[in-house]
Every structure is written in structure tokens, then in C-alpha cells.
């Protein structure tokens, strides 16, 4: 739950009131001495620091939950999200303490930045891995869906049957779709909404195929078989394009790592011995 600006002000006023009450307890109704003023200043600094720390942790927690919700909407498993959340929550205080112990405030800030960057990179990698896993296995799930439709099932029953089988790589997607279909919306509407939510073009293509079958009345099974074949061909072309990029990606470590190491280990010692002989 996020705090509004008035809530922050109320907490600050409460801390000031608490400090004033402590001043009355320490000093009574008399003017405080220098030692008493320093003690009150330390207490006020402590309460202000506690207030800002609580505000910062709440804000960081809200941002963390927002990013995890976006990843959950993209199809990342709950187990992966739980691991990322636990690692981040434990990593931020550890980075703060270790960075402050090594380099002070600058080290603490650098540690927090490193933990945040690691969290974002891990989250994007998890989303990308789930996306690739779905793209590889979705044509097989479409074949199962086409078989169910050609066996006489309507799209609703076909999705329920495929979700019960739990096709590898698409388990969470088909379970989510089967649950959404029980809300009363049509199959094409559920697929279109999920495609917009996750940004997956394969689900949008399936939604168009089902909507066309419902509108024009042609059989859905052959259309799903054609869609699965097109998606497999697209994956093959993407794999071939990635394989053609491999030599270009190898150039950087070859030019900047392997060749300099080869020169340092083989050419430089020979040149050094040659110059030593010439000088002698």
C-alpha cells in the first residue's frame, strides 16, 4: 500500500511531536542545557532517519512489486519470481552494509545500483527465456488443439482438453486461457486480450484464426494445422538467421582477447630474445 503526501507529512509531524514530548520529559518546563540540546538533536536525527528509511523501503517495495507483476503478466513462473524477489530483498541491505563498510556512502549507493541492475537483467532474461520456450513449443500445442477440434470439440472444450494435457512449454499459458474462458468471454476475445497483455504475436494469430472460423464457418482444425506449420517455418528461419550472426559475434573475443594473448605469449618473447642478442 502506497503512502500519499499527507501521510508522509503526518508521520513527520508525529516524529516532531514525539521529539517535543521527549524534550518536556528530559527538561521539564525549563530551558534545556547544551548537553540536553545535543541529546534532543540526536533523537530528532534518529527519528528523521527512521522516517526516511521507512519511506524508502516502501517505495522500493512498490517498484519491486510492479516489476514482478509485469513479469508475471509476461508468463514468468511463480518459482522464478519468488527467487528473484528473495534475492533482491536480501541483496539490497547486504549491498548497503558492505558498500558503506568499504567505501562509505558512495560504496553503499554503488552497491544498490549493482543489485538493481542485476535484478533488472535477471528479470529480462527470465522473460526472454519464457518467451523463447513458448515459441518453440507452441506449434506442438496447436497440433493438439487442431486434433481436438477435428475430433468434434468446440474451441472452449478443445482448450480445456489441451490444458488438462499440460503441453510442455505452454502449461501456464493454456491453464491461464482455460481459466479465463470460464468467465463467459469468447475464445477469440480471451486470446486477443492475452496477446495484448503479454505482447505475443502467436496468440494474436490464433485469435484471428478462431475469429475467422466463427465468422465464416470454415473448419478450425485445418486452419490451426496451417498456423502451426507457419510458426515452425518462422522458427526455422529465425534459427538460421541467428546461426548466420554467430561468426560476427565471435569477432569481438577473437580480435580483442585471443589474438592479443597469442601475440603476448608467442611474438613478444621472441622479439625480446632477438633484441637481447643484438645488443650483446
Q: Secondary-structure blueprint of this entry?
A:
Elements (H helix, E strand, L loop, with lengths): L4 H23 L6 H40 L4 H73 L4 H11 L5 H11 L5 H12 L2 H16 L3 H60 L1
Helix pairs in contact: 1-2, 2-3, 3-4, 3-8, 4-5, 6-7, 7-8
Short structural summary:
With about 280 residues, this protein is an all-alpha fold.
Q: Which features characterize this protein?
A:
mainly alpha, 88% helix, disordered N terminus
What does this structure look like?
The protein is mainly alpha-helical and 280 residues long. The chain has helices at residues 5-27, 34-73, 78-150, 155-165, 171-181, 187-198, 201-216, 220-279. Helix 3 (78-150) crosses helix 4, helix 6 packs antiparallel against helix 7 and helix 7 (201-216) runs antiparallel to helix 8 (220-279). The N and C termini lie far apart (80 Å). The model is unreliable at 1-5 and 19-30 (pLDDT under 50).
Largest sheet: none
Oligomerization status of the protein chains: single chain
Count of discrete alpha- or pi-helical segments spanning 4 or more residues = 8
What is the first-to-last residue Cα distance?
Answer: 80 Å
Q: How much strand?
A: under 5%
Average pLDDT taken over every residue: 77
Question: SSE order, as H and E?
Answer: HHHHHHHH
How does the helix and strand content classify structurally? Answer: mainly alpha
Give Rg in angstroms.
Answer: 31 Å
Give the tally of β-strands.
0
Helix content: over 70%
Stretches where pLDDT falls below 50 for ≥5 residues? Answer: 1-5, 19-30
Shape by Cα distribution: flat
Amino acid at each position: 500500500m502506497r503512502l500519499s503526501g499527507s501521510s508522509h507529512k503526518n508521520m513527520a509531524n508525529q516524529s516532531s511531536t514525539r521529539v517535543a514530548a521527549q524534550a518536556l520529559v528530559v527538561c521539564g518546563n525549563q530551558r534545556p542545557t547544551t548537553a540536553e540540546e545535543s541529546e534532543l538533536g540526536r533523537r530528532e536525527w534518529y527519528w528523521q532517519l527512521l522516517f526516511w528509511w521507512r519511506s524508502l523501503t516502501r517505495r522500493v517495495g512498490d517498484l519491486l512489486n510492479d516489476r514482478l507483476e509485469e513479469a508475471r503478466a509476461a508468463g514468468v513462473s511463480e518459482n522464478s519470481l519468488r527467487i528473484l524477489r528473495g534475492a533482491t530483498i536480501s541483496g539490497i541491505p547486504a549491498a548497503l552494509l558492505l558498500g558503506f563498510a568499504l567505501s562509505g556512502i558512495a560504496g553503499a549507493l554503488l552497491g544498490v545500483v549493482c543489485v538493481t541492475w542485476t535484478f533488472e537483467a535477471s528479470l529480462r532474461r527470465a522473460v526472454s527465456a519464457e518467451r523463447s520456450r513458448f515459441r518453440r513449443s507452441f506449434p506442438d500445442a496447436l497440433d493438439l488443439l487442431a486434433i481436438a477440434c477435428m475430433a468434434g470439440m468446440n474451441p472452449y472444450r478443445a482448450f480445456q482438453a489441451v490444458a488438462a494435457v499440460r503441453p510442455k512449454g505452454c502449461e501456464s499459458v493454456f491453464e491461464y486461457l482455460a481459466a479465463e474462458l470460464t468467465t463467459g468471454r469468447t475464445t477469440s476475445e480471451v486470446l486477443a486480450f492475452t496477446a495484448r497483455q503479454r505482447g505475443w504475436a502467436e496468440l494474436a494469430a490464433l485469435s484471428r484464426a478462431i475469429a475467422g472460423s466463427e465468422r465464416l464457418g470454415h473448419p478450425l482444425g485445418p486452419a490451426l494445422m496451417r498456423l502451426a506449420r507457419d510458426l515452425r517455418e518462422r522458427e526455422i528461419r529465425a534459427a538460421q538467421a541467428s546461426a548466420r550472426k554467430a561468426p560476427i559475434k565471435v569477432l569481438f573475443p577473437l580480435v580483442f582477447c585471443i589474438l592479443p594473448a597469442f601475440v603476448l605469449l608467442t611474438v613478444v618473447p621472441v622479439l625480446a630474445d632477438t633484441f637481447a642478442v643484438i645488443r650483446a
